[in-house]
Amino acid sequence: MIINKNMDLTLLSGLKIGGSAEIVYYPEDKREMIELIAEFGADAVIIGGGTNTVFSSGAHTKPFIMTTALNEIRSSGNSLYLQAGVLAAQAVDTARRSGLKGMECLWGIPGTMGGAIRGNASIGSDSLFSHLKELSLISLEGCEYQMEEFTPRYRDSGIKDVIFSAEFELENWSESASAAVIEELKAIRAAQPKGVSCGSVFKNPEGKTAGYLIDKAGFKGRSWGGLTVSKEHANWFIRTGDAVFEDFENGVSEIRNEVLALFDIELELEIKVYYA
Length: 276
Ligand SMILES: Cc1cc2nc3c(=O)[nH]c(=O)nc-3n(C[C@H](O)[C@H](O)[C@H](O)COP(=O)(O)OP(=O)(O)OC[C@H]3O[C@@H](n4cnc5c(N)ncnc54)[C@H](O)[C@@H]3O)c2cc1C
Description:
Strand content: 15-25%
Low-confidence stretches: none
Shape: globular
Bound molecules: flavin-adenine dinucleotide
CATH topology of the largest domain: Uridine Diphospho-n-acetylenolpyruvylglucosamine Reductase, domain 3
CATH class of the largest domain: Alpha Beta
């Protein structure tokens, strides 16, 4: 297993924001993952691609576990087995090349399968969980177990344990049906902001979009240090300079306060934040 010491956390964060991690482990198989979780339990910081994550400044002493070396893919008939560190893009591509439907809801989403499942990530209306047959999980005590019933909500799988692998049961579809859906998703992506980001900053509250509320509160184009609210989509922060954690915190709290004052709505972060 590779172990990195004193790692620069800006390398792991979608917005390139963070201090340093004292130690980062890269387990390569189930035994190594179980041993790490059994040793560190709830103290372990599990990171996939880090695309939805920012870290506070300073030295993080909790052990980091990165899943990116857990990247086995097995495909047989309509079944697709993916370890947690497989990139969402690889999963989409494997399904597409096998003529299978069900992974395209991750089209264009950066990061890993573990992060996508944990946060119930998707583009468009379909959900990964419609095609998920079984998850292999590791409890925070280091015990492996399987899960076959899921109760995901918007951007929240409800899963608190560590995802090791997932097995999907996908459907067959024609090349033309697949191409048509991909064209629709490409159009959604093309309309999204460009630049270094973590994607959406806040979850959409019930019945509204966070982008609409932030726009109405007048934040489009507003900057805090090296972070700017995208002019195309007000729920995205774009890194436009040497952004640091304090810029992120200032932006988040100012937007939250203003949206609360104007609309009486409390915005919840979609981005995950880890403190040293
Ligand atoms: C340009 C851009 C576009 C995006 N578009 C979308 C979009 O359209 N839809 C969308 O939903 N999201 C989108 N995102 C957000 C992000 O890419 C997704 O949420 C992605 O699924 C996160 O995966 P990750 O591996 O990077 O997760 P990370 O950032 O590494 O982790 C996110 C959370 O998942 C947990 N986690 C990671 N792996 C595991 C595991 N194996 N077991 C348990 N917990 C784990 C982490 O502890 C953390 O709490 C976008 C981001 C960017 C930068």
